[in-house]
Amino acid sequence: MVSILSASAFGTVLIVLVVIIGIILLSALFLIPARLKKCPSDKIMVVYGRTGAEGASLCLHGGTKFIWPFVQAYQFLDLTPMSISVDLKQALSRQNIRIDVPSIFTVAISNEPGVMQNAAERLLGLKMQDIQNLAKDVIFGQLRLVIATMDIEEINTDRDKFLEAVSRNVESELKKIGLKLINVNVTDINDESGYINALGKEAAAKAINDARKSVAEKNRDGSVGEANAQSDQRIQVATANLKAVEGENLSYASMSQSNASRREVEAESLRRATASEKIAAAKALQEAYSAEEEAELKRAARENATLKADVIVRTEIEKEKLTLQAEAEAEQIRRKAKGEADAIYAKLEAEARGTVELLSSQAKGFGEIVKQAGGDPDGAVKLLIADKIENLVKTQVEAVKNLRIDKVTVWDTMSGKDGSSTTSNFMASLFKAIPPLNDIFKASGIQLPDYLGKIDAPKAIEAPKIVK
After folding, report:
1. Are 150 and 214 in the same domain?
2. 117, 46 in Cβ contact below 8 A?
3. For labelling, which of 121, 200, 220, 244 has a CA lying 20 to 30 Å from the CA of 287?
4. Same domain, yes or no, for 318 and 205?
């Protein structure tokens, strides 16, 4: 019984395993074609994720690649060429002449191994317009750089050298972002000063003059050859006739003279024609030189105007800067002066308020004293003086406090009035100079009481005896 159950369980497990393996094989059969991607010839397939490559992505141009689910993804880069119109204006040449160089550049994403990796890193996910704008910025910079290293004559006459320099510089920079340069087509070259037009006129005048010179030389050679041939023919005929008929010598001599006169006329005509052609050639050269001189004068005037404009602009900027600085300093001085004036005004206003308060308080105090004196102002003044009597006495004492009479040595000549001592007169005058306290109170209308003492008439101070 147990063996039968074991056999049935083993069979069930085996069936389940077979079913699972079948499901896996069927899934693989459906999954492999879905994840097997083909790269067209006009695109680059960029596989990123877990690629196992040295870089951040794997780039394929053509072929087939299996994209592992969950760990890999892919995108395509279009190799279709892009035509970029570059309307370059005011580019500065080596001669400091600004020129316009409109041109058309044909670029595309490169399929070279190293450059293709740059395209995958820098252009993947960008729209075609964004790629064109990026390439246009690079082309603008390199085109200006090439023009700055060449003269206008080289750019205008040696187009192959100019295009080669542009292609070399532009292509080296485009490779850094994964692009390659296919073609460069410069449509036209113009300059604002008319220098290129003057060069064209000079070349045309030179070509015309060379052609005229060549025609004149050919005409001269033909005329001279024809004249020589005719001369030889006439000489031979004349010689033969001279040998044949001796009698015809006079007529042939006259004929020879006539032919000589005719040749002189022909030579004169040829000389005039040659002189006219040379004069015309000289006038053409003069016009070419005049055109070149005019172009140089215009260029010099433009450069002079540019330099003057630069100097004027710098001067105006410096002037405006100095003006702003002066205004700022003046504003600072005005604000400082206003602050100081406000501070002085506030101080004076505070002092005035204090003085007003002090005078108001004194006035109130004086009014109270007058009120206590029964409304008598003189009595109020007497009260104030009585209040200050201690200070008055102190002032009187201070007047003679520091006099050291005992240390004064006087030589008395007894030359006072009535033979009195000058020393006694000096001492009396000194003490009289100090106003007595009783006199001060009398002047104020105050009568001191008798118990404070009465002042008798002053006695004469005896002069000290002088020991002879």
Report:
1. no
2. no
3. 220
4. yes
Tell me the mean pLDDT in the region 6-11. Answer: 72
The answer to which of 42-56, 100-114, 305-319 has the lowest mean pLDDT is 42-56
Contact in structure between 48 and 57 (CB atoms under 8 Å): yes
Do 186 and 202 lie in one domain? The reply is no
Q: Residue 205 has which token pair? A: 């005048």
Strands 190-191 and 98-109: antiparallel
Full-model pTM: 0.39
- In whole numbers, what is the pLDDT of the chain averaged over residues? 76
What are 105's two structure tokens? 């550049």
400 plus 423 within the same structural domain: yes
- Rounded distance, CA 135 to CA 114, Å? 18
Residues 178 and 267 in one domain: no
Residue range 377-398, pLDDT digits in tens? 766 666 666 666 667 667 766 6
Nearest to 62 by CA among 107, 113, 106: 113
Of 190, 167, 191, the closest CA to residue 180 belongs to: 167
Helices (H) and strands (E) in the chain, counts: 11, 9
Please state, in angstroms and as integers, the Cα–Cα distance from residue 465 to each residue in 185, 424, 468, following that order. Answer: 138, 11, 9
Residue 397: the pLDDT is 64
Residue in the structure block whose two tokens are 């079948």: 22
Residue 400 belongs to domain spanning: 388-452
Rounded to whole angstroms, the Cα distance separating 359 from 357 reads 6
